[in-house]
Amino acid sequence: MPGAGTPPPNDLMRSGGEAREDVRLLSGTHMNAVLESITDGFAVVDRDWTITWLNPRAEEILRQPGLPHEELAGQQLWHAFRALCGTVLDAQLHHAMETQQTAHFELYYLPRQRWRGR
């Protein structure tokens, strides 16, 4: 029997499913905070090249000057950033996706008139 002021055992323990969901939500929140704080551009795409996440720096790097802000998550990478098609980035990202290996390259990104490297 719990002591005075001690919550009943069912309030102290959560089901495995509830606990896993809590961890997932906290991990996701923490991960978003970490990724958003990175000063380099960081983007996540799925196997179909759908943008699932971009940090603010990646949007700043990739978005063409003067274009209105729109939600990029959910868009297909090659449609959202047509200027990337046919570039070294296009070839290197396809190769990296196919081989599941890291790619290193430099790219002059004409819409931003800057060299980018990785």
Key phrases:
118 residues, alpha+beta, 2 domains, two-stranded antiparallel sheet, 5 helices
How do the strands of the widest beta sheet line up side by side?
Answer: 1-2
The structural domain count equals 2
Radius of gyration: 21 Å
Return the average pLDDT rounded to an integer. Answer: 74
Q: Name the overall outline.
A: globular
Let me know the number of strands. 4
Task: Determine the structural class based on helices, strands and strand pairing.
Answer: alpha+beta
Helix content: 40-55%
> First CA to last CA: what distance?
61 Å
Quaternary structure state of the chains depicted? single chain
Q: What's the helix-strand series?
A: HHEEHHHEE
Helix tally?
Answer: 5
Main beta sheet: 2 strands, antiparallel
State which percent range the strand residues make up: 5-15%
Pick out the low-confidence regions.
7-12
